Structures are given as C-alpha cells and as structure tokens.
C-alpha cells in the first residue's frame, strides 16, 4: 500500500495486519524483524585513511612528478628525486587530513533515531529499543519524544509535531487522524502521518508504524547521501585539466628535443638525459603544494568572516558560484516568529511601533489575553530572554512584554484557575483567571472559529458594543488580508464569568487580531544587493507555504513581478528535463521535499550553473551534498546538514555567504596569478635550454639547479602572490564562466610572452659569458643567477594579470617583498657558500659578472610593463 495518508485507519491496520487496541504479538514482531530488518539506517562503507592517502596520487600532475622522480633516480640524480617526493607526500598528507574529517552524515542521521520507544504489544505497553520496531507496531507518542519510524496516526489528543528538520517548516504541525483524499501531497501537508526523526512538541498520540529503517523518509535521505557520488569542484577540474595540458606539452617538447638531438648525431643517452632535464624544467613541482597552502590560508581568512570551510577545494569554488539556493527559515529569516500587525475593530490596523505608542484599556486587555492564555516560558538571564514552548505563543508573549507586561509577574498577580487546552478540532485555547475580585476568561485561536463565538467587541475607547454580522464580515476580511500577506493570524477574545464554566467559549468579546511572521534578517537585503552586483542569482527554497514564501521573497527583493513560484506539488509532476526549461525563471520554491531540492540542483547544474545550496535541516543534506558548494548553518543547523556541506556559517548570517564568495573570487584570482607566475618561469627555463640545444651549446643548467629554482625561488614568491589583496572590482564583475579554466587563452599567451622575455634576457647573458669565458661552471652560474633573479622580479609583474605594476603598487603586499628578499639571499648563498657550491655546481661571480647578470634580470620589469600596456590598451 502506498500513500497511507489517503487510507482510513481501519484500512491501514488491516493492510498491516495489526490490532489498534492490542498491537502485534511478540512472536509476530520477531518474525517481522527478521523479514524487514532492524529499524536503523544502513551505513556506507567508509574509506580507510590509507585508501584516502593513496587516492591523492591519482592526479595527472602528481603522476608526472612521480615519473620525473623515478627517472631522476635512474640517471643518478637522487637529490632531485628526494625533493620531488617530499613535495608529493606533503601534498597528499594535507589532502588526506582534510578528507578524513568529511564523511559522517550517516552516523549523525543514526543519532536522530530514538534509542528507545513505547509500543503496544500483546495488549500491553512495552518499552523496546527503537531498532526493534517493525511495520504494524502501535507506538505511543508524547511531548518531547522522537518519532522512531514513519507511521499513520490512529489516535490524537492535542497533538502537534515539529517537522522543521525534515520539511523545513518552522511551525509545529497540528496532527489529526482524518483521511486526506489528495494526490501527490507534500510531506508537510500529510497531517495524519508522523515521520522518523521528528519531535513531538505537544500532546499525545498513537500511531501504527508503516515504514522502518531505509524505507522511512529519513532513510530515503540517508540512501540518497550514501549513493551520491562526490562531485569535483571547478578548481579540481581546472587543475586536472591543467596537469594534463602540461603533461602533453612536456612529452611533446621532450620528444622533439630527443629527435632533434639524434638527427644532429648526438649520443642517444646524452639526449635522453637532456630530455629529462627539460621535463624537470617544465613541471611546476611546487604547484600542488602552493595551491594547497593558498587554499589553507583562504580557509583561515574565511573563519575570520564567520565561514568554516570543511573541504579545501571549496574555498576557490565559492568564487565561481553564480546561483545560491537558500533555505528561508533561519537563513534568510531569523527563525523566530514576531507579531508585526494588529487589527482592532472597527478598521484600525497598527504595526509594532504604532501599537507601543497607544495606551488604552482595550490594547492592555488584548496583550493580557495574549500573555495569560499562553503556555510558553520566558525567563531573563544576564539581560537576555530565554524562551521555550510553541513559537507562536512565544511570539505573542514577547509582543506583550515589549508593550510593557512582565509575563511571570502577571501570572502571579492574575493566576490561572481553570483552562480548556487547545485541540485541533476546536482550534481554540481558553484560560480562566482571578482578576480584581472578578473572574475573566481569555480565548485565543483561529480567527474564523473565535469570531463565530463572539457576540460583542471592545471599541478603542473601552466600550463594549454589539458585534453585528457586518462587523464580523469586516473582521473576516481583515483576517484574509493579513493571511494573504503571509502572516499567521490569531484572534484574542475575553469575557467575564461567574461560577459556571460550561460555556466559556460562547458569547465572547472580540479584542483583536494579531498577525505574525518569521521576519527577514536585517542584513539580508544588503547581502542580496551585493549578490546582484556580483551577477549571482539567489533562489529561495522552503518548506513553508507558498503565500508566506512569496511575502518574504518580495520583502527582501528576491521575487519580482515576472518571476515564477513553484510548489512541491507542481514539482512532483515535473521531471528534471521539464524543470530545466523553466528553472531560470523560478525564484521561489515552496512546500518542497528532499527529492525536490535535489531535482532543483540537478536542473540548475544541467543549465551549466555553479550552485551553492544553503540549508540547516536533515532534508537539506542530499541537496547540500549534490550542489557544487553545500553551505550549512552553524547555529540552527543539524549535524547532518553540517557534515554533508563544504562550508558552515558560524553566525547563520546570509551576508557571511557573500563575504565568503568575495574571498573565494580573490583566491581564484590569486591561484591564477600563482599558476601564471610558475608556468612563465618554467617556460623561461625550457626555452633557455631548448634554444641552447638547437644552437649546439653546452647545457646552460643542470637538473639540480632547475629543481632548486622551481622549489625555492618560485616557491616563496608564489606563496606570497597567493595572499595578494583583492582587486577593486572583485565583486563588481560577473561570475567566471565555469567552463573557463585557470589558463585562459589570454593568460596562456601572457605565459609564453613572459617566459620568452626572461629566456631572451638569460640567453643574452649566456652569449656574453661565452664570449668572455670558457669555464662551464661559471657560464652556468651566470645563467642560474640571471634566471633566478629575473624570476623573482617577475613575481612583481604577476601581482596583476592585466593592470600595470605602477597602478597596483608594491606596498600593498609586504609578504611578497620579504619573499623576494629572502629568496635572493638564498640565491647568493647557493652561489658563494662553498658547501652549497659543491651541491649545486656553482662558483663565485666577480663584480662585473654580477652587474651584467643583475641588469639583464631587472629588465624583465620594464619590458613586461610594455607588454601589459600594449595588450591593455588594445583591449580597451
């Protein structure tokens, strides 16, 4: 049987073979446990630490480095091999540490299941482990209980359940046993069902269990999480693509050099060693480590901006996000109900500020009813209000307290002596109080029900007047208008009574309507405006009703006149391909389920969007994991949502997402600068060696010198480039095309231009040195010094891909200046310290030799500035 909510209690119990008065027999329960399995969630097999570690060696660039290390060992260059392996192992270790913290979602889902549950078996109530509950069991539920499995309600008494973690709806849901004859009803509207992992907020009930374990709604989410494949972030895809491109270029260069040498009659072994030298020169050994460190520094900076990054690559991926799918409750809103509008008859409408300035017997009576006919608890600790109870009642009590009442003091002064609790049939609650030697009853509830039971109303001047049918119609219209504005509306009434409590809810005096809503966060509007400026589309996804969602979306500026709103009911009838056709027009999704959210993310990704999904409930976890970036709320978020995400906001502030996006864009810019710098430097080494071979000159550099340049000279400045401040337009440009890699055509052109200029300057020094000297170590030392110094100074050119160094300035990143100075000191040590001369094959340079090399190296700045000016002006 499907859709148990559409079946009567009798049909459901008959189908499940159970007696609603006695439950299952212990013997039958045991048989069903063997048949259906325990009521728990299956766990995905976890990766071992070693498996995580070795999986880091599958990247194409890492494979190239390992091959280079192997070849270095074969040709006797063990120092090169050791240095390469240190970098590779360090990079793999850092990545493993990050990954080992990630996959805990299913374990946290398990924690949400109730450890014990009360069931009716053999005609008596027993307490059993929740894992032993089976379909057909009759469970007893009371306030504060976790619901242990999905079930159809068969008895309810003043029963409501908080389903926020599963549906996203902020208000507890009033439950009934009534049959609901509607197709494709969202979970939040199935008011005769209860679901595993939700919490009973009020009353008591009996339910017959319909699904356990993986077949529950919670289990379906767990299954989605366990089956979902990890998706690569744009940075991972870009680095993988870049690694393959570099690998292909290296193989091509090595093959050409080897063949040219053989054609020229050079010994095959010598040409093989030369080709290996070129390979070592071309591979940016430090790139994986530098990118990892830059991302780690980005993670540290984001913590300062209230965003904790759980997965390293997500730091950069935030910068390419062009769609944010945001949950409403607790993310765009405060996750607390506030009374925002009041209606006093006849036709007086007041907002929060207006009513505070009105002092009258009428308004005082209204607030007395709101605060006394109320079961919430409010205490003040260290100046802060601590609340517990139903969110609606808390909102009413806080509104009265803001007006000037003290709930605890009022309850002592006007004690409750009798009450009729709220129930879903009457839709009202009534309390009786001793007040000034009189007895007053206060009633609050659904406006349509309360108004029907009113015969009088209190006018603004305090006079009690007869309530006519026209008056009732006016109040009903005010109620409808407030409801259309997305407000949850309650009516408050009172009457004086004697000793007879039989008709407490008849002949009431109408006091007013109170409309409340979960208001937007005050900083959200500004954050959304920044998103618009940055070309980021924000979509609201919520479990709340359509009208409420529309109201909030319009107020904060997400929804405009021509935008679409879709509900979960409409989404059920659409497949992903149908949704793809309209997804660009939809700004609000209301009453959605976990599978709906997945469908939305999939449709957006099919449209080529880079999607960030925010959320805080269990229902959000699959979509958080499926999205390019999952963003969980740190305060109100469930552990499940946090563990399925890449980023957690420590302040639950939507504005922090925007700050993180800005940081992500800056980080991508800086990674691009780092890659550009490293590759242009490596190209200069390749061109220098390649031209020397073509001219049949001695090799200008040996492998250990090349590796030293790539690790030390490139490494420190590259790290400093990774923390460059953001460029001024970082949040004023559209998101980067996700298909655009780190190396665009423009940047690749700059790489070859910069590398060629460096190599020409170096070859000039090499030519001059050949004319002056014939000592091979001296020649190589001059080439080594010129190329190293030129690369260090080229890092200044790399501060901006497009803007002139004189526009960017050199003082805004002192770390880069320190890195250049430190690396230059190390370079002088390698050249002039005897112990290092033996390792690196260098020798002392005279003053003249040093000046010639230094002048050639410095020329990289004015020459490349000229290139920037020409290319920048051409683009302008």
TrEMBL record:
It is found in: Cell membrane. It catalyses: Ca(2+)(in) + ATP + H2O = Ca(2+)(out) + ADP + phosphate + H(+). It holds the Pfam family Cation_ATPase_N. Keywords: ATP-binding, Calcium, Calcium transport, Cell membrane, Ion transport, Magnesium, Membrane, Metal-binding, Nucleotide-binding, Translocase, Transmembrane, Transmembrane helix, Transport. Residues 3-77 form the Cation-transporting P-type ATPase N-terminal domain. It comes from the Bacteria. One of its GO terms (molecular function) is metal ion binding. SUPFAM superfamilies: Calcium ATPase, transduction domain A (SSF81653), Calcium ATPase, transmembrane domain M (SSF81665), HAD-like (SSF56784), Metal cation-transporting ATPase, ATP-binding domain N (SSF81660). The chain crosses the membrane at residues 53-75, 81-97, 246-263, 275-300, 674-695, 707-726, 747-766, 778-796, 816-835, 847-867. Its EC number is 7.2.2.10. GO terms for biological process: intracellular potassium ion homeostasis; intracellular sodium ion homeostasis; potassium ion import across plasma membrane; proton transmembrane transport; sodium ion export across plasma membrane. It is a multi-pass membrane protein. Belongs to the cation transport ATPase (P-type) (TC 3.A.3) family. Type IIA subfamily. NCBIfam families: ATPase-IIA2_Ca, ATPase-IIB_Ca, ATPase_P-type. This is P-type Ca(2+) transporter. It comes from Pseudothermotoga lettingae (strain ATCC BAA-301 / DSM 14385 / NBRC 107922 / TMO) (Thermotoga lettingae).
């Amino acid at each position: 049987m499907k859709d148990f909510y559409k079946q009567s209690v009798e049909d459901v119990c008959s189908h499940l073979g159970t007696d609603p008065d006695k439950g299952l027999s212990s013997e039958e329960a045991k048989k069903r446990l063997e048949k259906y399995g325990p009521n728990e969630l299956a766990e995905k097999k976890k990766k071992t630490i070693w498996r995580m570690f070795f999986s880091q060696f599958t990247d194409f660039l890492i494979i190239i480095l390992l091959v280079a290390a192997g070849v270095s060992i074969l040709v006797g260059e063990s120092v090169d091999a050791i240095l390469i392996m240190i970098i590779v192992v360090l990079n793999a270790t850092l990545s493993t540490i990050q990954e080992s913290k990630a996959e805990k979602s299913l374990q946290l889902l398990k924690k949400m299941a109730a450890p014990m549950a009360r069931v009716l078996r053999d005609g008596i109530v027993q307490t059993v482990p929740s894992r032993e509950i089976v379909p057909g069991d009759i469970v007893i539920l009371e306030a504060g209980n976790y619901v242990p499995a999905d079930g159809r309600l068969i008895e309810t008494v003043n029963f409501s359940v908080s389903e926020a973690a599963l549906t996203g709806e902020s208000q507890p849901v009033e439950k009934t046993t009534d049959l609901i004859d509607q197709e494709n009803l969202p979970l939040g509207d199935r008011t005769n069902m209860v679901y595993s992992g939700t919490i009973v907020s009020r009353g008591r009930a009996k339910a017959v269990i319909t699904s356990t374990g993986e077949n529950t709604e919670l289990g379906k989410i767990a299954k989605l999480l366990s089956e979902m494949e990890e998706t690569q972030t744009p940075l991972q895809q870009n680095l993988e693509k870049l690694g393959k491109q570099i690998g292909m270029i290296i193989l091509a260069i090595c093959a050409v050099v080897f063949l040219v040498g053989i054609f020229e009659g050079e010994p095959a072994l010598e040409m093989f060693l030369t080709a290996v030298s070129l390979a070592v020169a071309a591979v940016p050994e430090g790139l994986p480590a530098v990118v990892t460190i830059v991302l780690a520094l980005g993670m540290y900076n984001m913590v300062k901006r209230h965003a904790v990054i759980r997965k390293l690559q997500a730091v950069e991926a935030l910068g390419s996000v062009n769609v944010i799918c945001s949950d409403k409750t607790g993310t765009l809103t405060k996750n607390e109900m506030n009374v925002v509008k009041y209606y006093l008859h006849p036709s007086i409408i007041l907002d929060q500020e207006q009513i505070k300035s009105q002092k009258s017997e009428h308004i005082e009576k209204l607030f007395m009813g709101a605060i006394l006919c109320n079961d919430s608890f409010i205490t003040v600790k260290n100046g802060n209000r601590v609340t517990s109870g139903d969110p609606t009642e808390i909102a009413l009590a806080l509104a009265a307290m803001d007006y000037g009442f003290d709930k605890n003091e009022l309850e002592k002064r006007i004690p409750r002596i009798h009450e009729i609790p709220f129930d879903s049939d009457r839709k009202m609650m009534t309390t009786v109080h001793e007040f000034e030697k009189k007895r007053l009853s206060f009633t609050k509830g659904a406006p349509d029900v309360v108004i029907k039971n009113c015969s009088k109303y209190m006018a603004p001047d305090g006079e009690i007047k007869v309530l006519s049918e026209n008056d009732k119609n006016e109040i009903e219209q005010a109620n409808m208008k407030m409801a259309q504005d997305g407000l949850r509306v309650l009516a408050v009434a009172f009457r004086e009574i004697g000793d007879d409590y039989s008709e407490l809810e008849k002949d009431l005096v109408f006091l007013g309507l109170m409309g409340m809503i979960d208001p937007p966060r005050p900083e959200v509007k500004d954050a959304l405006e920044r998103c618009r400026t940055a070309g980021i589309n924000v979509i609201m996804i919520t479990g709340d009703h359509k009208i409420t969602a529309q109201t909030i979306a319009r107020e904060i500026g997400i929804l405009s006149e021509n935008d679409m709103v879709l509900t979960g009911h409409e989404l059920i009838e659409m497949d992903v391909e149908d949704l793809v056709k309209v997804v660009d027009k939809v700004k609000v999704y209301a009453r959605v389920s976990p599978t709906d959210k997945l469908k939305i993310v999939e449709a957006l990704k099919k449209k080529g969007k880079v999607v960030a999904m925010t959320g805080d409930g269990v229902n959000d976890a699959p979509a958080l994991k499926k999205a390019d970036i999952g963003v969980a709320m740190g305060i109100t978020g469930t552990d499940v949502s946090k563990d399925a995400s890449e980023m957690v906001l420590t302040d639950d502030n939507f504005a922090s997402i925007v700050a993180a996006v800005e940081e992500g864009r800056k980080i991508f810019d800086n990674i691009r600068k780092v890659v550009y710098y490293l590759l242009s430097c490596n190209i200069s080494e390749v061109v220098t060696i390649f031209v020397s071979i073509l001219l049949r000159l001695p090799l200008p550099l040996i492998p250990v010198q090349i590796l030293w340049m790539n690790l030390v000279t490139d490494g420190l400045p590259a790290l400093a480039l990774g923390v460059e401040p953001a460029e001024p337009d970082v949040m004023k440009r559209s998101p980067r095309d996700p298909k655009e890699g780190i190396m665009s055509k423009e940047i690749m052109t700059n790489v070859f231009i910069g590398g060629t200029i460096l190599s020409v300057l170096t070859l000039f020094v090499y030519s001059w040195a050949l004319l002056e000297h014939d000592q091979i170590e001296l020649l190589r030392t001059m080439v080594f010094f010129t190329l190293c110094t030129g690369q260090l100074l080229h890092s200044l050119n790399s501060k901006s891909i497009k803007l002139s160094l004189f526009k960017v300035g050199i003082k805004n990143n002192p770390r880069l200046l320190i890195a250049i100075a430190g690396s230059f000191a190390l370079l002088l040590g390698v050249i002039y310290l005897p112990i290092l001369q033996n390792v690196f094959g260098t020798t002392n340079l005279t003053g003249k030799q040093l000046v010639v090399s230094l002048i050639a190296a410095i020329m990289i700045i004015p020459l490349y500035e000229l290139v920037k000016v020409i290319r920048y002006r051409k683009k302008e």
